[in-house]
């Protein structure tokens, strides 16, 4: 009986992990199934570009994993039963021996009234296209309010302002714009906002969203034909209902190998995992964290099943790359405590480097088994017996 490995989610963590497992595990012993609701790999780090009106290259998962031995299951995950080791999909049920949970995250509304009903966001392809269609319908002088001064808010507001100069774009920041950047990077960020004509409302907490306006905590009313919510990320509630040990945010609590602390046959990677970095702090939800946790989980699964050790990825956060439209960007490095270093890159060089990073990541996703070894690892006898016992 083959050992059944199920990977949930084909984002930056899940797609890379499925390919890595296929590279290193012998198909005579294992059956790898990748479950994803959409047929394409979505470059989430470029969704603000899609929303602004730019077309992104399609990357069909079926083409990406053709000939790899990975079974692609296009379905939506509805539930996970960690006790009985099954996943409920919208088209049936799937049993596993080892589960890698990488379903990612969506927008966090923080319970603010009206966000779910009236606001737009860019945390998924469908959501970005919905915003794009809405922006297409706005006339000259249409007003757009982006709520949130984090990476997503900065990139979305600058991309829309550059791509659609006829719109009036504003950003509502709970604190100071770019407060977490080094002084030089912060000055460059403000110059970029001035150049693009983006109005910034600092120390502004939006507490209600309506169809054509947003209301701040102090009663200030911002007229907006399109309110874009970028106030952080929230994980899907599936893990919290699964029987797995999760945090108050719904993230799966894992050890330093990305293995669930409550269910040893479950691993988590990406935004779904509550992983502690080498600085003793939880890793932030990010593409970089997805890559590192995915590599760490993959290595642990291979080691557990084959007894072989492969190099382990460091759980570090090195910095941020922030696009400010297509021709400008900031790359800000951070120290071990995730505080901004004085060193940073800006302008066209930073934009070129960020684009190269994203292209490299997309190429890696599009070639998940590049460099597949001629001889892949067989499972240990113990791993084979455990799979047979699970079926019996």
From TrEMBL:
Transmembrane segments: none annotated. InterPro entries: FAD/NAD-bd_sf, FAD/NAD-binding_dom, NADH-Q_oxidoreductase. Residues 4-288 form the FAD/NAD(P)-binding domain. One of its GO terms (molecular function) is NAD(P)H dehydrogenase (quinone) activity. One of its GO terms (biological process) is aerobic electron transport chain. Belongs to the NADH dehydrogenase family. This is Oxidoreductase. The lineage of its organism: Bacteria, Bacillati, Actinomycetota, Actinomycetes, Streptosporangiales.
């Amino acid at each position: 009986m083959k050992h059944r490995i199920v990977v949930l989610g084909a984002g930056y963590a899940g797609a890379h992990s499925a390919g890595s497992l296929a590279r290193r595990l012998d198909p005579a012993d294992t059956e790898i199934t990748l479950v994803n609701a959409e047929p394409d790999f979505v470059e989430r780090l470029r969704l603000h570009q899609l929303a602004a009106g730019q077309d992104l290259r399609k990357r069909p998962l079926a083409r990406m994993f053709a000939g790899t031995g990975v079974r692609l299951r296009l379905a939506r995950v509805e539930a996970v039963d960690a006790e009985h080791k099954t996943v409920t999909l919208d088209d049936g049920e799937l049993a596993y021996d080892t589960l890698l949970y990488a379903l990612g995250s969506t927008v966090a509304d923080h319970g603010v009234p009206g966000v779910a009903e009236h606001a737009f966001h860019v945390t998924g392809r469908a959501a970005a296209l919905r915003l794009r269609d809405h922006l297409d319908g706005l006339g000259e002088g249409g007003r757009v309010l982006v709520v949130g001064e984090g990476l997503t808010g900065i990139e979305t507001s600058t991309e829309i302002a550059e791509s659609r100069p006829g719109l009036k774009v504003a950003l509502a920041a709970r604190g100071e714009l770019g407060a977490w950047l080094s002084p030089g990077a912060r000055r460059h960020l403000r110059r970029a906002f001035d150049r693009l004509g983006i109005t910034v409302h600092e120390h502004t907490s939006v507490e209600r969203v309506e169809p054509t306006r947003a209301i701040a905590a102090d009663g200030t009313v911002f007229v907006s034909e399109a309110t874009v919510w970028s106030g952080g990320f929230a994980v899907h509630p599936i893990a919290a209902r699964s029987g797995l040990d999760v945090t108050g945010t719904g993230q799966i609590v894992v050890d330093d190998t990305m293995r669930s602390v409550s269910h040893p046959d479950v691993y988590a990677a990406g935004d779904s995992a509550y992983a502690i970095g080498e600085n003793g702090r939880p890793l932030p939800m990010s593409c970089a964290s997805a890559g590192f946790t995915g590599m760490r989980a993959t290595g642990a699964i291979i080691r557990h099943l084959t007894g072989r050790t492969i190099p382990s990825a460091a759980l570090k956060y090195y910095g941020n790359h922030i696009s400010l439209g297509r021709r400008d960007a900031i790359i800000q490095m951070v120290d071990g405590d995730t505080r901004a270093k004085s060193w940073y890159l800006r302008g066209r060089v930073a934009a070129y480097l960020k684009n190269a990073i994203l292209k490299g990541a997309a190429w890696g996703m599009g070639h998940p088994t590049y460099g597949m070894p001629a001889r892949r690892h067989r499972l240990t006898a113990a791993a084979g017996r455990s799979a047979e016992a699970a079926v019996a």
